[in-house]
Structure formats: structure tokens, C-alpha cells
């Protein structure tokens, strides 16, 4: 083997070693947790549509098929969710990172009442569909494509985070007089022993229909 | 020796007893109803004629129409005897109501049949409409099987003579939830919060390969240097 070949292979090994060092160093550092909402995004009074934001009349019932949140680059299909044995909301299958779910025994998005959409913040490998839900701002647009061909357009009224122990069932799941939407994912800190300590909930109301 | 007066009295008593027995053996559903029908009803004048009323059991049994009306449960022999007549008169007995009676162009006997049926069902305000709704048609003739008890509607639900509205299924409840979730949602496993295990594994693998390659290169260079020297 001549000197030129040896030299080129030495360079190759050196570059590979540097890449390996960088990967080990980067992987060893704990990642930043999913973004969490600030107190400025919470409701000032109660879960009501923001003042000045239009409130559209409710649609008839039709199953949702897709959710889009342009502000955090979410564009995902929706699957039906049920209830677990303990009464908590089921979750979408973890195999598909880009999949959200809606509570199919409740109110379909766009009809009068509270529709519930949930998605994973992450899976075992990394961020999932609602990873950035906590970074939503008031007024952000949420679109739900429905099976009847119409798109229900919602505006975010608030984004709040709750501890698991103090989850406000009625505030989140309770009925409303207009067409409302709740987007839910995990948040509120992470513990290696118990997992996520809370939930991030984005509140929205129907502003229009396309 | 008995006196003529007592003889006459005894004969009259015997005759009365015979008549009473004859009435007692008459099936109760026959003409008892017709005889004891409520006086408040205005019946056709023809029905009040003594000649058309089956006042005795013998008269009733020789009349085919009452057998038609009364059916097999009380007099099986009659139902067999008047089987043809049963078939012919079935539409009449299924459709008759008290309101239709005065308008029906029936002969005296047919009217008598209808009267017996109505009195047997105890016509009350509103009950005659239930009769027409009770589907007393083919296969459910009153005489062929135990007659269903007429269901009396609550008073004032429907004015007499109006058609009943079809039953509608109850409207689904509005504004109520059949069920709703409770508690927090488990939508995360922490893959984005912990260290990058995949990156760690990949980096370690590449670093190991680089170390092996570097060692091989150093050895090869040393070997080449010894050969050159």
C-alpha cells in the first residue's frame, strides 16, 4: 500500500472519529423538553372565546379526518379515541408519530359542544405530532377537515398547562354553548419515574367554515 | 187435590223456571250483552224490536250470525257448524266500531252481532278507537283466541273520531353527553425529554470503528516503514 493511500485512509478514520465524538457528546446531553405555554397565554377569566374574535354558528355532525395547525407545522390525520378503563381519554397508537386522535364518543369538531383532540408530545425516539403545542399563541389558527368535505376553522383562545393531580375535568371536557375545540398533549415537566407530570391544553372556538 | 189456582200458579212458576234456565244456559257472550247493553247508547230502532233479539238460548243457537260473532271458545260445535259464515263475516267484525254502527247498512241480525261485540268490550269514551287499532283482524278474531284487554288511553289524549298519530321514536337527548373523559391524558413517553440514546449509540459505534481503523492504519504504516528500512 503506497503512502498516498495510507494518508487518505488516515483522513477517513480521523473524520469518522470526530463524527463519533460529536454524536456521543450530543446524545449524552439531555434534550430540551417540549415548549411550555407561558402564563400570558392562559385565560384571564374563564374558558370563553377571546373578546373580538368571531364566533361562527355550529355545523352539523361529521367525523373529522385531519388536523392542521400552520403555526406549529402540524398536519396530521385523525383517528378515533375512546376511553380507558379508568375513564381517562385513550391515546393514538404510538407507532405513528404524525397521528392525532379525537374523542369519537363525544362532540365532532365544528358542532355545538366541546370537541377533544389529543396527540403525543413525543414517543420513545423523539418529538411527535403535538410536540410544539405548548408554543401556540392566542389567535393561532387550527383547521379540522371533516368527512363531509367542510373545514372547520378555529382560533386559539388560550393555552394552559395543568398538573396531573389537578386536572380540571369540567374546564377541559365540560360542555359549551358554542362549537369549541380542545387540543391536548403531555407537558408540565418530565420525571424518569412517573413520566410527564401534566398536560398542555389549547382552547379554541369555531370562527369559520370553509 | 190441588186447587186450580195453585195449579195455575205452579205451572206459571215452572214456566218461569224453564225460561230462566234457558237464559242461564245461553252463553254469556251471546245476547246477554245485547240485552244488558248500556242504556245510554242510542241504538238503531231495529235492534229494539223483540222479534230480532235472541231472547232465548234456543233462538240464539238457531241463528248463525251470533255464532259467527261469538267464536269457538264458548261454543266449539257452533264454530264448526258455521265455519263458512265465520269466513264471510270476518271483515265485519274486524272493522266495526261503535261510531260506524249507525251508518252501517246491516240487517238486524248483523247489527245485533255488532252490538253484542261492543257490549262485550265495554265501550267507553275512547275505547272504541282502541278497538279499531287493536288489530282484531285475521288470526286474532275475538272468538278464536282470548280477547286482548283493550288498552284505555289516558283521558283527553285524543278527541273522539280523530285518527291516531303514528308512534314516533323518542327524540335523542340534546345537550347531554353520553360519556366524557376524566383526568389527564398520557400522550407522551419522554423520548424528547431524555438523552438521545440513538445518537449515543450511533456515535459510539462510529467512534469504535474509527479507533479500529486507526489502529489498523498505524500497524500497516509501521509494517511498511520496517520493510522500507
TrEMBL record, chain A:
Region of interest (Disordered), ranges: 31-62
UniProt-listed Pfam families: Sortase
Signal sequence extent: none
InterPro entries in the record: Sortase, Sortase_dom-sf, Sortase_F
Database matches in SUPFAM superfamilies: Sortase (SSF63817)
Domain of life: Bacteria
Keywords linked to the UniProt accession: Hydrolase
Transmembrane segments: none
Name of the protein described by the UniProt record: Class F sortase
Source organism (scientific name): Streptomyces clavifer
From TrEMBL, chain B:
UniProt-recorded name of the protein: Secreted protein
Residue spans of biased composition, Pro residues class: 145-175
Region (Disordered): 34-102, 119-200
Keywords: Signal
Feature: compositional bias, Acidic residues: 119-131
Compositional bias annotation for Gly residues: 185-194
Extent of the signal sequence: 1-31
Low complexity bias spans: 84-95
Amino acid at each position: 500500500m503506497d503512502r498516498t493511500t495510507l494518508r487518505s485512509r488516515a483522513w477517513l478514520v480521523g473524520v469518522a472519529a470526530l463524527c463519533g465524538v460529536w454524536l456521543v457528546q450530543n446524545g449524552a446531553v439531555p434534550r430540551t423538553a417540549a415548549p411550555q405555554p407561558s402564563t400570558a397565554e392562559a385565560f384571564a377569566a374563564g374558558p370563553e372565546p377571546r373578546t373580538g374574535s368571531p364566533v361562527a354558528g355550529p355545523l352539523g355532525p361529521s367525523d373529522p379526518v385531519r388536523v392542521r395547525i400552520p403555526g406549529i407545522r402540524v398536519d396530521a390525520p385523525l383517528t378515533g379515541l375512546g376511553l380507558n378503563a379508568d375513564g381517562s381519554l385513550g391515546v393514538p397508537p404510538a407507532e405513528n408519530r404524525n397521528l392525532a386522535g379525537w374523542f369519537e364518543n363525544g362532540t365532532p369538531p365544528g358542532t355545538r359542544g366541546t370537541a377533544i383532540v389529543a396527540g403525543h408530545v413525543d414517543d420513545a425516539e423523539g418529538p411527535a405530532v403535538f410536540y410544539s403545542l405548548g408554543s401556540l399563541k392566542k389567535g393561532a389558527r387550527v383547521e379540522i377537515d371533516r368527512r363531509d368535505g367542510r373545514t372547520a376553522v378555529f382560533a386559539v383562545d388560550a393555552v394552559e398547562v395543568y398538573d396531573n393531580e389537578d386536572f380540571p375535568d369540567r374546564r377541559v371536557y365540560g360542555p359549551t354553548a358554542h362549537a369549541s375545540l380542545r387540543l391536548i398533549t403531555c407537558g408540565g415537566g418530565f420525571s424518569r419515574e412517573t413520566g410527564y407530570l401534566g398536560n398542555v391544553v389549547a382552547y379554541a372556538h369555531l370562527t369559520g367554515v370553509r | 187435590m190441588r186447587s186450580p189456582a195453585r195449579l195455575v200458579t205452579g205451572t206459571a212458576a215452572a214456566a218461569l223456571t224453564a225460561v230462566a234456565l234457558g237464559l242461564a244456559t245461553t252463553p254469556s257472550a251471546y245476547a246477554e250483552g245485547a240485552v244488558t247493553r248500556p242504556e245510554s247508547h242510542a241504538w238503531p230502532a231495529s235492534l229494539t224490536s223483540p222479534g230480532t233479539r235472541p231472547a232465548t238460548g234456543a233462538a240464539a243457537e238457531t241463528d248463525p250470525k251470533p255464532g259467527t260473532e261469538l267464536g269457538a271458545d264458548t261454543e266449539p260445535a257452533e264454530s264448526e257448524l258455521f265455519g263458512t259464515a265465520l269466513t264471510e263475516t270476518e271483515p265485519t267484525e274486524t272493522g266495526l266500531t261503535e261510531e260506524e254502527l249507525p251508518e252501517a247498512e246491516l240487517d238486524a241480525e248483523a247489527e245485533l252481532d255488532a252490538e253484542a261485540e261492543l257490549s262485550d268490550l265495554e265501550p267507553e269514551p275512547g275505547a272504541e278507537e282502541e278497538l279499531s287499532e287493536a288489530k282484531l283482524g285475521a288470526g286474532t278474531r275475538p272468538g278464536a283466541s282470548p280477547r286482548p284487554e283493550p288498552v284505555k288511553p289516558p283521558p283527553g289524549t285524543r278527541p273522539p273520531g280523530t285518527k291516531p298519530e303514528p308512534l314516533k321514536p323518542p327524540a335523542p337527548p340534546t345537550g347531554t353527553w353520553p360519556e366524557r373523559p376524566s383526568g389527564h391524558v398520557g400522550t407522551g413517553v419522554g423520548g424528547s425529554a431524555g438523552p438521545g440514546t440513538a445518537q449515543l449509540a450511533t456515535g459510539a459505534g462510529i467512534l469504535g470503528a474509527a479507533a479500529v481503523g486507526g489502529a489498523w492504519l498505524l500497524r500497516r504504516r509501521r509494517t511498511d516503514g520496517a520493510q522500507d528500512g
